[in-house]
Amino acid sequence: MARGGFVYILSNRPNGTLYVGVTNNLIRRTYEHREGLVAGFTKRYGVKKLVYFEQHATMPLAIQREKNIKHWSRAWKIDLIRSQNPKWQDLYEEIAG
Q1: Residue 10: which of 74, 18, 46 has the closest Cα?
Q2: What is the mean pLDDT of residues 61-84?
Q3: 65 and 56 in contact (C-beta within 8 Å)?
Q4: Domain range 5-96, CATH class
Q5: What's the first-to-final CA gap in the chain, in angstroms?
Q6: pLDDT value at position 9?
Q7: CB–CB of 9/18 below 8 Å?
């Protein structure tokens, strides 16, 4: 059985630096970013705040959606975030419980 996936967007502040990613475990992956366990872009720029996510039935669907979003303009990504999270709240506590 295929596993589902998540597309997520992290930011360091409202209208700040954006990072688009994909994972099969949103809680674990967001925790890794928050704690600086992931070397690279998010650690370098302090991008730790989960501001948007969406769930997909399969990883291939999630990966395709991630690729599509990554090709969007910055304005479109910001509009996507604002459509679901107008105050740019950190959604990590919502998903981690």
Answers
A1: 18
A2: 98
A3: yes
A4: alpha beta
A5: 27
A6: 98
A7: yes
Contact 29, 42 (CB under 8 A): no
Q: Quick one: tokens of 3?
A: 């596993």
Separation between Cα atoms, residue 82 and residue 91, nearest integer Å: 13
- pTM, to two decimals: 0.95
Structure tokens at 8: 């997520």
Average model confidence (pLDDT) across the chain: 95
Q: How far apart are CA 61 and CA 45, in angstroms?
A: 28
- Tokens matching residue 69: 């979003």
Q: Hey, where are the domains in the chain?
A: 5-96
What single letter denotes the amino acid at residue 62? A
